[in-house]
């Protein structure tokens, strides 16, 4: 195992999505797919998830060609999770029309013994009880990041808080940060969430970028301006993938916060910018299509362009 | 006259505003008031506007104590312009309940001879026909900036375009940029507007900051994160005031775009950040209350804090 391997646990899905730019039916989706493909540009990935017997082998084969270990993907009798949603004028907010959990309803993330020593762990947006089960199985990770959403904040706040107490980094969107903290101001919301456990809080702001909160205060990163947003689905998860991938590739470790706070802060800020760049590619097409044809050289060009957009 | 004097033309008003934080009745408002007070931290200002006989002398006296020449303010028989509006959860958008133009309805901006040589000119959001009348009266300004809004884009597009052809800088919000250009993407919208005349376009993004577009591309500045937004009224105008004030204080000139493009771009970017800082103070209280008690030292502290929030 590489010292910068990331274990990622979450949903693998088919999405049917309608946006002002068009419609995509039964395309590859799911939080852990977006995360893994984005993170694979930076570090090796191990995926834990579940799919139905209808999930094409070609997808798994394609993932495994990208430094993504899919041996932890369970294939269960039944259909793959299927999400149906749409975006209207406001591309920051999806409307869910149907959530057919299918085999995902009984997802029980069980790690291979060989996966338990993963140094980096990303818990995508799933039931916080399952997130805890994963944490119970991993040994002593260097860094654990968590994504969650309004559904769990509303429905399983107690369990979510237990999970939060065990992670280093939380990423949520603005509305979720306010809901979780009960604070309207982003600064106060982040401060309240940091007291729940994660020393690093990322608040995703859709087309406006992301805000990072640490003991050193706030870092505000704009989204890279793209010519056309085709489908925002997966932006947050691919943001997290590049963010975590960058940290893993650079050997970030939670102890850095004390041992080398300056370096820790710089790595986190650069990781956020990498997240913004990756998300800006994701939204340029449906599903993972843009990421599938993304070259590392394009990432570099856009990273430089984003740096230019924020340089004073 | 100082080499960096700014002539500002626009509305002086009373506002009655309701926000989630409370209500303010018949308080000092109007675009040119916000602009002038903000700009006065950087450069001397000449105001051209009209008020009714109900406008308190104390207000004018207070303005004139702040390097603001109010000799161009006409006092007309009747009542001062009165705007009644409110903000609900979305603090980026005001709802107008009443617009009593009163004496402002027959505003006819006539410059004193001694004001015609003003090197910097700011045309706040008023009828584009009046904006042109002002431009007809000024001699050879170094830099002209313009603010407008959906009302004129919809109702007087032809006249607005004539005005646009004569100015260096336009500031509008996201919706207005899209409406004016017919483009959804901010990049394309700005490009289209730059072709209408202004070589510099600023797109205001409310609580998310502002985007600057020049021949060198985009600069994305976040809004400074404040603990509580009390009232967003005047944020855009005070942004423009600090922006223009900073440019005037630093001797910016439209010819710089060719003669020293690097310096021009740096000045514009720093001016945008100064605008963001000023706006962040404005929104912390109703009316001009926060700006009235703002010390230069507070500006410096927050400028440094904003730089810290965007440093990589």
Task: Fill in the keyword field for this structure.
globular, 9-stranded mixed beta sheet, 4-stranded mixed beta sheet, about 300 residues, UDP-N-acetylmuramoyl-L-alanine:D-glutamate ligase, alpha/beta, about 40% helix, homodimer
Describe the structure.
Two copies of one chain form a homodimer. Chain A has 312 residues and is an alpha/beta fold. In chain A, 38% of the residues lie in helices and 24% in strands. The first copy, chain A, has helices at residues 31-39, 57-64, 128-137, 150-155, 157-164, 174-181, 186-195, 235-249, 256-259, 261-282, 289-292, 296-310, and strands at 6-9, 13-19, 22-29, 45-52, 68-76, 82-86, 95-100, 120-123, 143-147, 169-173, 200-204, 210-214, 217-221. The longest helix of chain A is centred in the C-terminal third of the chain and has 22 residues, at 261-282. The mean pLDDT of chain A is 96. Chains A and B meet through helix 7, strand 13, helix 10 and helix 12 of A and helix 7, strand 13, helix 10 and helix 12 of B.
